[in-house]
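Researcher: We're reviewing a set of sequences before deciding which ones to prioritize for further study. For each one, I'd like a predicted 3D structure that I can look through quickly. This is HAD-IIA family hydrolase. If possible, include the structure in token form so it fits the rest of the review sheet.
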Amino acid sequence: MTGLIGSDVPLAERYDLALVDLDGVAYRGHDPIDGASQGLAGARANGMRLVFITNNASREPESVAAQLSGLGIPTEPVEVMTAAQAAAGVLATRLSPGAKVLVVGGAGLVTAVRAAGFVVVTSADDKPDAVAQGFAPELGWTQLAEAAYAVERGAWHVASNLDLSLPTARGFAPGNGSLVAAVQAATGVVPDSAGKPAPTMYRLAVERAGSDRPLVVGDRLDTDLAGARAAGYPGLHVLTGVSSGRDAVLAGAHERPDYLGADLMSLLVAHPVPERGADGWWATRGASARVTDGRLELARSGEGVDAQMDLLRSACMAAWEAVDAGLELAADSVPELGVAAP
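Model: Here's the predicted structure for HAD-IIA family hydrolase, in token form for your review sheet.
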């Protein structure tokens, strides 16, 4: 069974590098997340290095680092890995320096592609060898059409990421994946993707940092944690963003986290591992769960954040055991668990 693991020491001591997602983990839009700056400062104090990983390809590392620093999380540009940098890395696997790349995206993608030694062009008539596509709020039909023309004529299509939605202060807006889908629909060509859940960014960041004990930290199961599984790195799912505790209980094996935390303060504590009793109940410090006749049953052991998280851990293990054994879990028997993001 693909399940949770435990750590008898704080995660910041067990792992030497945290690959930290941005929106929903380190901040929410333009606002700080409670516990983020304290948790990351404590992790650094324990010797853990940080690299911030983002599927956003429109911004340059300097801009991201400045935003984090302004929110009380001192960050250098070298501690940021963007999907634009990952896309440039993917391009370099097949193209030689000097190759022409039609960039459909923001300044971050333009900078990354040029830094990798490629010639940036803006028209399909320039006969580009590849199209690099990333999100930028100013993109419109004209740019998408150029991408479609180039791909139709044989250019290699590389997307910075395939996130269908993008969190904003007003809600969820179409993400790069939605824009890429328009080009794919027009051409019938399936693009390669550099961003999460592909493991490219994680592996590039680990290689650059020289880490041998990395930990992925994210809020989205379908990108952050699925990417961790794809890369073979342990993952911590924090409940301050998109995916909820209930989502974790219902997650497929390819998206499951190894650890669960309410927020980034969970880097500074040990993580108990649920234990299975002979009676079929999974228990974490007294908070228990089991699946009977396809329905999740819960037994709470107290109130507060720790008790809620322990119940979530037990629920995950009970549900995952049942599903992995071939049983069907009734989704309506799974309530919202853990600590929900405000």
